[in-house]
Amino acid sequence: MKSDRVKDGEPYYHQISHGFSVADEDEINTLLNYSGQRRLFEGAVFRIARTECVSKSLTEVEAICERLGVGASVTMFMADPNPAKHRCDDHDTANRIAESMFSAASLGKVELIVDTFIDLDRGHNVRNGVIDRLCNPRPAMFVVQNLIAILNSEWEVSGPLSYGNFDNGRWVCANQPERSLVLIAANAPKRRFELSIKDCQQKIGGVGQVLNLVSGKIEPISIITSDTGIVLESKESTSGPLLILSQRAWN
């Protein structure tokens, strides 16, 4: 019996679970090797629930693909697993989409699908998409626009990911040979961000720039390295998904 199936005595939700979870690696391997038909499979479909850490889940899916020698299509659900709960916080949605896109861009075997595009699309779970029911863009739409633009420029992201939490937010760092790009998903306005990033101090530092992925506005930011990570200080308090562009990477 699959570990995520509803058992006696637990709440039952009338929903279909589409895709494997990261706990299903053995089952995927069994299917790939069934009757020697492995050559017929290009990859597997995974799912990431709204309640899961998206960077951690995408990294684990990438590792599974490496071990099994296949690709992956990953659907990240914006709806809550519990249909009685709504997910209508535009700020939280923008942060989550930014983290998922940034993380997936650095991974070579993962194709990311974000569900949903428009509010109330295909399902009774109440959640916000990147456009509302009148097709007006929500903040997450500008995140998609700005992040695609920057990652298709000279700031294309690749390399291993590190990630973690800070006071009232999350960070994701993509380490590359000459530089590191840092995404910040802040849940509340702050001027100072203390991040426990320990593997990119030599590639980021000095005076850099911070790109607000919702507004598209670029501002200078002070970057201070320490033994425990980096400290970022901006002139004004800001929140939401932010991308740190280090001046050191341009030298």
Provide structural commentary:
- With 251 residues, the protein is of the alpha+beta class.
- Helix content is 21%, strand content 32%.
- The chain has 2 domains: 22-151, Glycosidases (TIM Barrel), CATH 3.20.20.80; 161-250, Immunoglobulin-like (Sandwich), CATH 2.60.40.
- It has helices at 25-32, 54-68, 90-105, 139-151; strands at residues 43-48, 71-77, 110-115, 161-166, 169-175, 180-195, 206-212, 218-226, 229-245.
- Helix 2 (54-68) runs parallel beside helix 3 and helix 3 packs parallel to helix 4 (139-151).
Q: Roughly how many Å is the radius of gyration?
A: 19 Å
What helical percentage do the residues reach? 10-25%
Average residue pLDDT: 85
Q: List the uncertain runs.
A: none
Q: Could you tell me the strand content as a percent range?
A: 25-35%
CATH architectural label of the largest domain = Alpha-Beta Barrel
Shape: globular
Largest sheet: 6 strands, antiparallel
| Total number of helices | 4
What is the end-to-end distance? 56 Å
Tell me the CATH topology of the largest domain: TIM Barrel
Overall tally of domains: 2
Sequence-ordered SSE layout with sheet pairings:
Elements: H1 25-32, E1 43-48, H2 54-68, E2 71-77, H3 90-105, E3 110-115, H4 139-151, E4 161-166, E5 169-175, E6 180-195, E7 206-212, E8 218-226, E9 229-245
Parallel strand pairs: 1-2, 2-3
Antiparallel strand pairs: 4-5, 5-6, 6-9, 7-8, 7-9, 8-9
Helix pairs in contact: 2-3, 3-4
List the defining traits of the structure above:
single chain, three-stranded parallel β-sheet, about 30% strand, TIM Barrel, about 20% helix, 9 strands, globular, Immunoglobulin-like, about 250 residues
